[in-house]
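Q: Predict the assembly, please.
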Amino acid sequence: MSTIVYNIPVQFVPAYRGREVIVRAQDPAELVQSLPEGVLDKLVGVQLLSLTATVDVLADWGYGVPVELVMRSPETEFPLLYRHAKLLDKHPVRVSIPVLPALFKAVKVANALRFTVKLDVGQPEPAAIAALQEVLDFYLHHMAVAQPVEFFHTALLSFYHQEPVTLWDVQEEDPAYVRYVTDNGRETMVRYPIGARVRGALGPFVADLQQALLAERGECCACEFFAHCGGYFKWPRQDYDCSGVKTLFRTLQDASAALRHDLNTFTAARQEIGR
Amino acid sequence: MIGNHFSLILLPTNKCNVACEYCFEDKTNDFMSHERLAIVIDKLLDHMERKAIASMTIYWQGGEIMLLPPVWFERAHEMIQQAAAARGKRITHSLQSNMIGYHKRWNTIIAEMFGNSVGTSMDFPNLYRKTRHGTPAQYAAVWLRNVRAAREAGIQVGVIAIPNQGTLQAGAERFYAYFVDELGIMDFQINTSFSGGEPSTAKQESILDLDGLSQFCVDLARVWVECGYEQGVRLGPLDELMHHFTGEGTCLPCIWQQNCTDEFVSIDARGYVAQCDCWVTSYPDYWFGNIFDAVSFTELLQQSQARQRFQARPEVLMEHESCVECDYLSICHGGCPVRTYTITGKFFVKDPYCQVYKALFAILEERAAKKAAVRSWRVLPVLRA
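A: Predicted assembly structure:
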């Protein structure tokens, strides 16, 4: 049985002692002060909710604690990533970037600084789909790209190895494994837009949603990418039109096929030489 | 890199024995005593402990470093290694000298302290490097004699060359042939000039036309890839760029780091701390502080407003310059602050050598792709069809 990881605000560290946690805070100093040696073995990572705070204390703290920088406004915040570059000397760093039309510069700067990227994708609007396509093209074809951009990276590998992984897993949003604890102490989904409602228990949430989506015989039922998506884009709005996101999956599928073809050709040629 | 490793450019003397016309340092007669050096090292080790930094490289230069006698270095080396060992830290050393004062009595300390390696500088043709009352030709003759003697003693000599107007006229092939074929240098690098310190005609002249310099760099890259790349000739920073574009591990020079404040600092003979040697010798307004006045080196760095300007520079460039649009952002980050400031008089603008860097990046990216294609051709006969 898999352990549940709780994304908790920093003030709940004592209450969640002994459980696997991702600890979030606005201020890096608050994180370091609240995480004594004893809780570090259950610490999955930390989330910085503000990019404007001084990070020296975190840069000097311990070794190898995964850090996620949570960006709110990629259009204006992308230069701030430079002040976090020093974190990489001691910690793996990922930037979570909301999928908004002005997304590209943030992804580009994050990549230039060797940060991995997680696109906080949700249910993207058409303008955001265009931005995602630009990022996908950059991820697939630009030679400067040296770090994963998720969810593209895992989806590409998933197509390549023909081992589907759903976006609930890639995005670390399946409440069977990851739960968000609000500042009021309530356990809920990681992605919980205002007005959205979770019906039923959190544990089987994704399985229940998938069952319902297939039962209604809607868009998911005939979708060739359902095994790679898992109904991710049908929550919270189940009437979301997936035509845009399908173009992304198709591009990834085509890229994986091209990669497989190239590698097969290469392998065959080497075997030919070896004869 | 600050993090697990720290780099220090240390100028234990601000004095020099030559009179290069385009030098960016405003010289003084100061030098650092062993007692003062011990204080510096102690504070640096305190800083390393506070920041959990395991190792440090000290880049020894001046002024002219060989104005201090070898015996001074013997004692300094022993003192530093003992202090480092007592704290469980590792300190290594690198030497940069003009080699005008080199003598065989340096050989032992160069072997023991500096890994039997020394970095020096020479241009082709030499227009601006001069001894105090001599000519560039006389300087070059002394330099060449001493470099040959050092190499005969088994010392590895690396050379930094700054292209000048004469270099552009001579062309890349002649330039390359001078260092590799005539001098037998297998490890050299090109640098771009910057007119730091007190203004002079020579400094102004040393800033080249960017179109001409770009073309020279492109031509040099072609010559080196053709004649030296696979023959073991190291030509910085072209070799590191080639490694980058062929997907190998690379160590790009400081001018292209994401933020040089994360990489190193410089301390001069008076104890002044600044970003690098040009800043510490010539720009008091950009000093971070004095290590002898500060309670701790860590606080000196943290509290320095001058250093905060350096830390902020890449952020400002991303907002106001075109760097974020550039295909080469990840290997340049807006370039070198000291070149920017000394040439443009501004701090928060991109490096004025942008055009030259892009030309160099583009040609090496293209050459790397061709090399990769050649490798594929050799491995994949199927591609010939």
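The two ends of chain A are 49 Å apart (CA to CA). Chain A touches chain B through 32 residues (CB under 8 Å).
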